[in-house]
Design a protein that fits this description.
about 40% strand; 2 domains; 5 helices; 17 strands; globular; mainly beta
C-alpha cells in the first residue's frame, strides 16, 4: 500500500513546487439555468397534439430565401413582403411582393396534390414551375445545375426543389396522435452554442433541452426515426424551438426548422412563433419567414380556389413531372419525343 501511495504523494508535491504561475485559466461556456419545473413527456406530446385545433393560418410576413447548394457560399435573395395562407393538411398559398415597388415577385401554391411556383421577378428568371407533391422528384444540386442541358433548370436552380409542404409542415405541425404507428421517447440534452445575448458576442453558453423523438413502427416491427422536437428548458414555458424531420427511413435529414419569438394569437388560446426558418440542407435552400403578429388570424374559412395558381402571364413552363425528353420548352411548345433505342 505504501509503495502505491508514494508516487502519488511525489506527484502532488511536484505540482505544489511548480506554483500557481504554471496554472492558467480558460473560459468555459456559461451554463444557463433551467427555467421552471420539469415537464413530463405526456405534457410535451400534448403540446404537439394541440396543433390538431389549428385548421387554417393567415398572416402578413417578411420572406427571405437563400440558395445553399454551393458548399462555399450561399446565394441570398433580397428580402420581400408577403402573405401566407395555410390550411390543414397540405394546402398553402405564399404571395411575395417587392417591399418598395409593391410589384409581384413570386406566388407559390399547393392544393394538396400539385404544387405551382410562379416567378415574376427578376425578368430573366420569369418561370412557371409545377409538379406533383406526392412524387420523389428529381432534385437539383450545384453539380447538376452546372451540367444540365435544360436552360430552364439552370435558371431555376435549387428553387426547383421547393415544395410547399415543407412550409406547411413547419407552420401547422402534424400531431403525433394522427399517426397510429408512432412510438416516442424523450431525453435531456445539453448543448454548447454561441451566446446571442446583447454584449456577449464571441462567448458560448450551455443550454438544456428536452428532445422528443417520434419514430414510426414499420413492417416487421422495425422503427424509423421520423421527427425530433426540441424544447428549450432555459426559457420560460419551455417553448418549442426546433423541429427536425427525417425522410426515407434511413435517418436522412429532411427539414430543420427553428422557431423563435413566441406570442399569443389574438382571440384564441394558441401560441405561435414569430420567426420560422426552414432549412432544407439536402435540397439546397432555406426559407425564413417572420410573421406580423397583428395580422395573424387562425381557423378562417379558406376555399380551395385560394390554393390554385394558373400561368396567366404565359411564363416559361417547367413541368417537373414530365420526362426531360418530353418536357415543355421555353416557348411552351411540346418538344418532339426522342427515341432511346
Amino acid at each position: 500500500m505504501k509503495l502505491i501511495l508514494r508516487p502519488i504523494i511525489l506527484l502532488v508535491f511536484a505540482l505544489g513546487l511548480a506554483g500557481s504561475g504554471c496554472i492558467r485559466r480558460e473560459p468555459v461556456p456559461e451554463k444557463l439555468p433551467v427555467n421552471g419545473d420539469p415537464a413530463p413527456i405526456e405534457k410535451l406530446v400534448e403540446r404537439i397534439n394541440s396543433y390538431k385545433d389549428l385548421t387554417t393560418l393567415a398572416a402578413q410576413v417578411e420572406i427571405y430565401v437563400r440558395d445553399t447548394s454551393d458548399n462555399t457560399t450561399a446565394k441570398v435573395f433580397p428580402g420581400a413582403n408577403g402573405a401566407i395562407r395555410v390550411r390543414r393538411p397540405q394546402n398553402i398559398l405564399v404571395h411575395v411582393t417587392a417591399p418598395i415597388l409593391n410589384s409581384n415577385i413570386a406566388d407559390l401554391t399547393s392544393d394538396g396534390e400539385q404544387f405551382r411556383l410562379a416567378i415574376y421577378y427578376p425578368k430573366d428568371s420569369r418561370m412557371f414551375i409545377h409538379g406533383s407533391n406526392l412524387k420523389e422528384l428529381h432534385k437539383m444540386t450545384a453539380e447538376k445545375i452546372k451540367v444540365t442541358k435544360d436552360p430552364r433548370l439552370r435558371d431555376a436552380g435549387t428553387l426547383a426543389n421547393i415544395r410547399p409542404q415543407h412550409i406547411t409542415d413547419a407552420f401547422i405541425i402534424k400531431p403525433i396522435s394522427e399517426d397510429p404507428n408512432a412510438v416516442y421517447f424523450r431525453e435531456e440534452v445539453m448543448q454548447t452554442e454561441d451566446d446571442v445575448r446583447p454584449g456577449k458576442k464571441g462567448r458560448q453558453v450551455e443550454r438544456t433541452y428536452y428532445v422528443l423523438y417520434v419514430l414510426e413502427r414499420g413492417e416487421g416491427g422495425r422503427l424509423y426515426l421520423r421527427r425530433k422536437f426540441w424544447f428549450d428548458r432555459t426559457q420560460e414555458g419551455t417553448p418549442l424551438v426546433r423541429q427536425q424531420t427525417f425522410e426515407n427511413g434511413d435517418g436522412k435529414i429532411g427539414s430543420d426548422v427553428t422557431y423563435s419569438g413566441v406570442f399569443h394569437v389574438r382571440n384564441s388560446n394558441l401560441q405561435m412563433a414569430k420567426s420560422v426558418r426552414v432549412k432544407r440542407p439536402n435540397d439546397g435552400y432555406e426559407i425564413w419567414m417572420v410573421l406580423d403578429p397583428d395580422t395573424v388570424e387562425v381557423n378562417l374559412e379558406l376555399p380551395s380556389t385560394v390554393f390554385v395558381l394558373e400561368n396567366k402571364e404565359n411564363l416559361k413552363d417547367l413541368d417537373l413531372d414530365r420526362p426531360r425528353a418530353d418536357s415543355i420548352n421555353s416557348d411552351n411548345r411540346p418538344q418532339a419525343r426522342t427515341s432511346t433505342r
